[in-house]
Fold this sequence. Notes:
By secondary structure, the protein is an all-alpha fold. It has one domain (about 15-230). It has helices at about 15-45, 50-60, 60-85, 90-115, 120-145, 150-170, 175-200, 205-230. α1 (about 15-45) packs across α4 (about 90-115), α1 (about 15-45) crosses α8 and α3 packs antiparallel against α4. It starts with 16 loop residues before the first helix and ends with a helix.
Amino acid sequence: MINEPQPGYIPAAQAPPAERATFLTRTYAHLLAAVLAFVVLSYGLFAVGFSEAAARFIMSGRMTWLLILGGFMVVSWMANSFSVVRGNPGIQYLGLALLVLANGLIFAPLLFIAATFAPGVLPLAAFWTVVIFSGLTVLVLATGQDFSFLRTALAIGGVVALGTIVLGVIFGWNLGVWFSGAMILFASLTILYETSKALHHYPTDMHVPASMSLFSSVALLFWYILQLLLQRR
């Protein structure tokens, strides 16, 4: 959960219909652009051999993954801090670019493993990500439900999940299928929360931060669907 909007502005849900429609169109257009940029970046990293090198680097030691995870969190925090600078689209776009770059780098080893050892898994993971995300998006936009009540539960769940991942790396635990399934549920609830937050809590000129929140949620969902499918191979 990222990109808390600034208070004191009329949210998209209370804006005139034309402004609300424009906001949603721009938000999802930027989300699509971010996803396409991620795909192109991932393909480029694979083509130049970076993904394979990253996979071998991670497999060289458990602590390596903690360093990478820490770096990803720092870059993501920087990207999110740029995104909430209202009235400065250039800084917001820089934040979006950094977020896509960070995800491209951290996904590189996982995508290499999937493409090399289970090539049929990647399109299947992408398919289910699109299906789940689309269904949850339609649910929020059609009902107009505000899922902000999920905030506390998601914050606690995020801390527990991060702690479990760190402990798993340190002690060499195999978190397995059940953890991946739980994280898919967590990511799905995050999509509900972020979609409703974009509609009910963002002003109509904050479409770039809104798209960043959704991109992070989609990336999390894709990561654990891919993990689950790989574990079941």
